[in-house]
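Entry 0007
Protein: Tetraspanin-7
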Amino acid sequence: YAMLLSLIFLIVLVAAVVGFVFRHEIKTNFESNLNLALRDYNVTADRHSEAVDTIQRTLHCCGVQNYSDWEKTEYFTQRGIPQSCCKSQDDCSEKDLKDPGKAKLKVFVDGCFFLVTSVMESKMSVVAGISFGIACFQLIGIILACCLSQYITNNQYEMV
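Output (structure tokens):
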């Protein structure tokens, strides 16, 4: 049991170190995937489009760096900027969303990449604290399992 807990502890430790070391690559990968999701965005209910809409509605952002990122997409030529970028759903018409000048006043102008990464970094201390707490319980479990094993081997009972 102590060996199994030790193995799990080492796996979690390695995952934490790898995540810390490669955090810049994770950001770059996220940015490129967000750009791909914008490029391939469509109105059909695919999960990438739904994810983009959810991020934009939740964080009150639009595009990767800013709302003008949508101008480079095929979706923009057909329908303009998506409704999920609108500050107020009642005040956004498709005509306004096709005109970047008018759209600037009606959509969120901040990009999602910066907001997502800043939210993730702000929550990182909470994740680190919870991970540290779990690691402490695992270490206590390892120590207790070793003590129990030692106690059992010291107090061998005679077979009858």
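Curator remark: The domain at 1-158 is CATH 1.10.1450.10 (Cd81 Antigen, Extracellular Domain; Chain: A). The chain has one domain: 1-158.
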